[in-house]
């Protein structure tokens, strides 16, 4: 198990990140999603509530130069499933799972982002809370070591996750030019019982210059009811 606080503090640019796991008391399914940016276009964003999920929008619409990869719905809810991703594949997963395809089948129709030379990975998560049970899966679609002709697809599924544990996946190993894609399995981390404490720790651990927005949700596994919070750097 690694310290998520240490992981974030020691990495100036993990890019975008997804956390999914279970609170220490075992009663909550937990997810967090953050975005970071190096360019003015990427930094000019906020998270806003959109139905049961969230979407990104331009903080200052006059400065929005290219919406294609930065304006999307990171979180959507389909019945007892919560979808969390770093791009418009949220909609792909939602629409195809609504047609009875699986998480993996839906993502087979997508690949990494076309932002040469980075070819940013598409990272996705799905949480399933039903009848007092919780399981989840995470996915990454990335180029084959920077080769845009090949897409490598990895899915990691977690059943009966122990209380207080979760997993963290992000887009980039670190800052760089081009940005190196995340490698390996999602990192095993500790999940707190207290949503506000967890939110504050994550936000304060992200690089001050590059952080943009953070979303955290705690879902009661017994009832399906949830609490969420959004933190935006732009106000």
Briefly say what this structure is.
15% of the residues lie in helices and 41% in strands. By secondary structure, the chain is mainly beta.
Write the layout of secondary structure elements.
Blueprint: H1 4-9, E1 17-22, E2 28-36, H2 40-43, E3 45-50, E4 53-58, E5 75-78, E6 81-85, H3 89-97, H4 103-107, E7 122-130, E8 133-144, E9 147-159, E10 165-170, E11 187-190, H5 195-205, E12 211-220, E13 226-232
Antiparallel strand pairs: 1-2, 1-10, 2-12, 3-4, 5-6, 6-7, 7-8, 8-9, 10-11, 12-13
Biggest β-sheet strands, sense, barrel: 6 strands, antiparallel
Mean pLDDT: 97
Give the CATH H-level superfamily: Inosine monophosphate cyclohydrolase-like
Order of the strands making up the biggest sheet: 11-10-1-2-12-13
Strand fraction equals 35-45%
Per CATH, the class reads Alpha Beta
**What is the name of the CATH topology?**
Glutamine Phosphoribosylpyrophosphate, subunit 1, domain 1
Considering the chains and any ligands shown, give keywords for the structure.
single chain; 235 residues; mainly beta; Glutamine Phosphoribosylpyrophosphate, subunit 1, domain 1; six-stranded antiparallel sheet; five-stranded antiparallel sheet; 5 helices; 15% helix; globular
Can you give a write-up of this model?
The chain is mostly beta strands and 235 residues long. The chain has one domain (4-232): Inosine monophosphate cyclohydrolase-like (Glutamine Phosphoribosylpyrophosphate, subunit 1, domain 1). Helix content is 15%, strand content 41%. The protein contains five helices and 13 strands. The protein has helices at residues 4-9, 40-43, 89-97, 103-107, 195-205, and strands spanning 17-22, 28-36, 45-50, 53-58, 75-78, 81-85, 122-130, 133-144, 147-159, 165-170, 187-190, 211-220, 226-232. The chain has a six-stranded antiparallel beta sheet with strand order 11-10-1-2-12-13, with helices on one face. The protein has a five-stranded antiparallel beta sheet with strand order 5-6-7-8-9. The protein is globular, with a radius of gyration of 16 Å. The N and C termini lie far apart (35 Å). The model has no long low-confidence stretch (mean pLDDT 97).
